Amino acid sequence: METEYELICKGSVETGRGMVLANWGSARLYASSESLIIKEAILGCLEFTPSQVEGFSVVGVVPFLTQGVKIHHLVSGYPSTIVFKAFKKADDVIRQIHQAGFKCNGKETIECIECGATLPEHKSQCPKCGWSYTGGSSETY
């Protein structure tokens, strides 16, 4: 049976030091329980299994404009830095990836961009410094 992938969003891909590899909307991010896929004209298709992804973090500070989802991965043939940017909040993108069933190393992992601590599953507030992806109190997602 073929795996069904959910289109999470359209956006752009950055590698290295802010090198944008796709015009806005030309890159696609797909997810399922078995893999995370980025399709883009220059990079082609980057596919990650859960065991190849250590986690996600939000990079940038302004939602919708400069925020992106950094994919912390273990694939030696891919650029070491891969950031997917979309016209939606980065934490919403991460939430949708998890809702599609993709779990990093078999679990959900999100790093706090303020202090680098790992957030507990289904929480948006950092237990170490109190920073929150939602800007308020801890929420379940």
In angstroms, what separates the terminal alpha carbons? 29 Å
Unreliably modeled segments: 136-141
CATH topology: PH-domain like
Largest sheet: 10 strands, mixed
Alpha-carbon Rg, integer? 14 Å
Assembly of the depicted chains: single chain
Shape: globular
CATH superfamily: Pleckstrin-homology domain (PH domain)/Phosphotyrosine-binding domain (PTB)
Proportion of β residues?
Answer: 25-35%
Class by SSE composition: mainly beta
Average pLDDT value?
79
Listing every helix as H and every strand as E from the N terminus to the C terminus, the arrangement reads EEEEEEEEHEE
Helix tally?
A: 1
What level of helicity do the residues show?
under 10%
**In the CATH hierarchy, what is the class?**
Mainly Beta
* Count of distinct structural domains: 1
The name of the CATH architecture is Roll
Strand runs, count: 10
Which keywords apply here?
single chain, 141 residues, mainly beta, PH-domain like, ten-stranded mixed β-sheet, 10 strands, disordered C terminus
Describe this structure in words.
The chain is mainly beta. It has a single domain (6-119), classed as Roll (PH-domain like). Helices cover 7% and strands 35% of the residues. It has one helix and ten strands. The chain has one helix at 90-99; strands spanning 6-15, 19-20, 27-31, 36-40, 44-48, 53-59, 68-73, 82-86, 110-111, 118-119. Strands 1, 2, 3, 4, 5, 6, 7, 8, 9 and 10 form a ten-stranded mixed beta sheet that branches. Strand 9 and strand 10 (118-119) form a beta hairpin. It is globular. Mean pLDDT is 79; it is low at 136-141.
